[in-house]
């Protein structure tokens, strides 16, 4: 401990370093970055005939190892400590005659201009730039100016550093403004136990003649020594990229020592584009008893299935890890913008990286299994990609589910882990009277999904619950043949209004959708169509309901309200609010009173509520109870969604058993001979867990 300075400023003091090296003696002192780790980077920039200046050499073995390995011999080492210079002259003078050690301050050097091809700094800048005080920054400016003076045009300043944000930012800004090319290498770890957990970086500043005017900055980062450099647009982005790698190193260090109590998530990005390529979740299962073969495994989630409960939620991943029987499971999601070369290609790409996330106690040379569903990576085909002024960038994609089923999905890329709309695709069938000759029959590609929409299948559990809520309508028998006026706010892919239109033969459905792009998507990609009983109004749902309420209020008191059922399935574009469905304005009391105005007294208002903020949710429920005396709630298992059934009159109150009975009657009426019906869709099941609030 007596070797430590009393203040950071002593790192730039000659008396401190004299005392340091006298007390330490002959033992070489390496702050960080051993020669075997630095060698691959140094080889790129140091040539055997270069004249090299090492500033702040200390008693590091770096120069000696460069000399002995034949990398370079014409090396001049300088330091402000007389004690260490004399020590190094004695240690190397006779063994390395072409290398010299001089007592000199990097802030004021005696060398002529343009004397060196390479200036090498291992920790000196870090030692001087300990803070951002004015006097410290002035010292660093003098250091940089001197290095620039003694370096030839085309030469390199190589700075080995831990890359604290203020150090990196200062170096990048100074030399890029001088017109130099700045590149930052991350030094590949040797795998040995490090003195520092943080990774070591080498800044490579290449000197160019300064061009008058504003020349473009050239800033690059090499994440590992073998990688091609990636161009970044600003000093801030370069500093941020380095900080990401430092955080990753700290995370890996933590994960290698202790189990993680909470799930850890991180993105691995594509080297070319910088976009996320893999999303990893690290899940530890304390209940799993460790044995030699169950420490660690990797689970590849099939493409398109990352939003499913088992893979897309913390609880689901926890259950997956426990059932897999491994102490630590890393789940891997694949991104839609990327191409993958099958399971073997992914395994080859990830094997080295995932081992950095290995748990403590993993036996040496342990084989780590890669798992998946059915042993493949799934199928995802992007059918359409566009940008809506209201919804932002979106995609329509076909994905393979369990078995042979394919699904078409609409995803808003501002919230890419949420499926906005989904429909099952039908297997292709030949047209009536059409026969293919055997020799012309083309075997379909396994990656080529069918295109026809199965309108009888509701993919979303919350849609199934919303439809089941219609059993609250009618008298003793809730029959679908009755005249029914339904208002749906929020079109999406159109599966909810389509199902009501097709299975309730006397239903007239009005749909309100604020985004005209979604009407185009639903029509082109999800089989939606308008007709006598189905009309879409491109309008803001708030304005549309307010207009209808104003019209109803002008009618005589005896005139009936307009709708038997009103359904809200509309998402919020504001991701900062703890409620993603509906937007907050849709559950404010004045607007809910307008909804009640256009709803028949015996009608039902069905709301899809997605709210993670407990206080906000309680406030919404209180407002609903103020407006609607009768309120039922149905939680969707494994999801945040809660379906609320609201009625204007408390007289229609029915207990859960009666609701289930009515649901069975309704389902029996909907199941008609010759009409397809999803056998897994049982209306009564949708109402089993209904609670009266």
Q: Which key phrases capture this entry?
A:
single chain, 693 residues, alpha/beta, Rossmann fold, 9-stranded mixed beta sheet, 28 strands, elongated, disordered N terminus, Methyltranfer_dom, eEF1A lysine and N-terminal methyltransferase, multifunctional enzyme, transferase, Lys/N-term_MeTrsfase_sf
Structural commentary:
Keywords: Methyltransferase, Multifunctional enzyme, Transferase. Pfam families: Methyltransf_31 (PF13847), Spermine_synth (PF01564). It comes from Aramus guarauna. One of its GO terms (biological process) is methylation. Residues 434-444 have a biased composition (Basic residues). With 693 residues, this protein is an alpha/beta fold. The protein has three domains: 8-187 and 195-208 and 218-250, Vaccinia Virus protein VP39 (Rossmann fold), CATH 3.40.50.150; 258-359, no CATH class; 458-692, Rossmann fold (3-Layer(aba) Sandwich), CATH 3.40.50.150. Helix content is 30%, strand content 24%. The chain contains 19 helices and 28 strands. The strands form four sheets. The protein has a nine-stranded mixed sheet with strand order 3-2-1-4-5-7-6-8-9, with helices on both faces. Strands 20, 21, 22, 23, 24, 25, 26, 27 and 28 form a nine-stranded mixed sheet that branches. A hairpin with a 3-residue loop joins strand 15 (380-388) and strand 16 (392-400). Helix 7 (165-177) runs antiparallel to helix 8 (235-257). The longest helix has 23 residues, at 235-257. The chain is elongated and about 110 Å long. Residues 1-6 and 429-449 have low confidence and may be disordered.
């Amino acid at each position: 401990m007596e070797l430590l300075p009393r203040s950071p400023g002593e790192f730039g003091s000659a008396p401190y370093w004299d005392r340091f090296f006298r007390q330490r003696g002959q033992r070489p002192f390496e702050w960080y970055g051993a020669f075997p780790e630095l060698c691959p980077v140094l080889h790129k920039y140091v040539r055997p005939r270069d004249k090299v200046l090492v500033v702040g050499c200390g008693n590091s073995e770096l120069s000696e190892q460069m000399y002995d390995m034949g990398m370079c011999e014409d090396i001049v080492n300088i330091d402000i400590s007389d004690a260490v210079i004399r020590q190094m002259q004695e240690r190397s003078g006779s063994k390395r005659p072409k290398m010299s050690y001089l007592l000199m301050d990097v802030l004021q050097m005696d060398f002529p201009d343009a004397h060196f091809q390479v200036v090498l700094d291992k920790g000196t800048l870090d030692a001087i730039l300990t803070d951002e005080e004015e006097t410290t920054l002035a010292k660093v400016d003098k250091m940089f100016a001197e290095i620039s003076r003694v370096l030839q045009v085309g030469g390199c300043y190589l700075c080995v550093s831990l890359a604290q944000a203020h150090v990196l930012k200062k170096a990048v800004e100074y030399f890029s403004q001088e017109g130099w090319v700045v590149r930052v290498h991350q030094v590949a770890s040797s795998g040995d136990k490090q003195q520092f957990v943080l990774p070591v970086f080498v800044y490579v500043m290449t000197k160019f003649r300064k061009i008058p005017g504003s020349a473009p900055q050239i800033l690059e980062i090499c994440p590992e020594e073998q990688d091609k450099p990636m161009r970044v647009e600003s000093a801030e982005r370069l500093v941020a990229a380095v900080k990401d790698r430092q955080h990753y190193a700290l995370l890996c260090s933590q994960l290698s020592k202790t189990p993680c109590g909470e799930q850890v998530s991180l993105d691995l990005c594509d080297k070319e584009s910088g976009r996320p390529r893999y999303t990893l979740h690290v899940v530890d299962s304390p209940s799993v008893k460790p044995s030699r073969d169950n420490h660690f495994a990797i689970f590849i989630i099939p493409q398109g299935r990352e939003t499913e409960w088992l893979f897309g939620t913390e609880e689901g991943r926890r259950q997956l890890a426990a059932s897999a029987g491994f102490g630590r499971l890393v789940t891997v999601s694949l991104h839609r913008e990327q191409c993958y070369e099958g399971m073997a290609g992914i395994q080859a790409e990830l094997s080295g990286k995932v081992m950095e996330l290995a748990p403590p106690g993993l036996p040496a040379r342990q084989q780590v299994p890669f798992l998946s569903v059915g042993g493949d990576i799934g199928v995802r085909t992007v059918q359409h990609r566009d940008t809506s002024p209201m919804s932002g960038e979106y995609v329509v994609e076909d994905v393979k589910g369990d078995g042979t089923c394919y699904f078409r999905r609409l995803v808003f890329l501002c919230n890419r882990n949420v499926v906005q709309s989904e429909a099952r695709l039908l297997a292709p069938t030949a047209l009536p009277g059409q026969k293919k000759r055997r020799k012309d029959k083309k075997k379909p590609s396994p990656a080529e999904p069918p295109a026809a929409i199965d309108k009888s299948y509701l993919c979303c559990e919350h849609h199934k619950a919303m439809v089941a809520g219609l059993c609250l309508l009618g008298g003793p028998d809730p029959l679908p043949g009755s005249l029914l006026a339904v208002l749906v706010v929020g079109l999406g892919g159109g599966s909810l209004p389509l199902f009501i239109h097709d299975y309730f033969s006397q239903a007239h459905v009005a749909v309100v959708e604020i985004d005209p792009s979604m009407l185009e998507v639903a029509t082109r990609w999800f089989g939606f169509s308008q007709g006598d009983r189905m009309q879409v109004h491109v309008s803001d749902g708030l304005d549309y309901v307010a207009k209808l309420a104003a019209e109803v209020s002008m009618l005589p008191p005896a005139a009936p309200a307009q709708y038997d059922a009103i359904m809200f399935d509309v998402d919020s574009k504001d991701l900062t609010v703890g409620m993603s469905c509906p937007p907050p304005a849709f559950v404010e009391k004045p607007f809910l009173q307008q909804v009640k105005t256009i709803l028949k007294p015996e009608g039902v208002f069905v709301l899809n509520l997605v709210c993670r903020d407990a206080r906000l949710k309680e406030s919404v429920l209180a407002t609903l109870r103020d407006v609607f005396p009768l309120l039922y709630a149905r939680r969707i298992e494994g999801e945040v969604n809660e379906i609320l059934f609201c009625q204007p009159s408390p007289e229609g109150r029915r207990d859960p058993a009666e609701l289930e009975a009515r649901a069975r009657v309704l389902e029996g009426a909907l199941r008609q001979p010759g009409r397809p019906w999803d056998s897994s869709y049982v209306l009564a099941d949708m109402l089993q867990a209904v609670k009266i609030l």
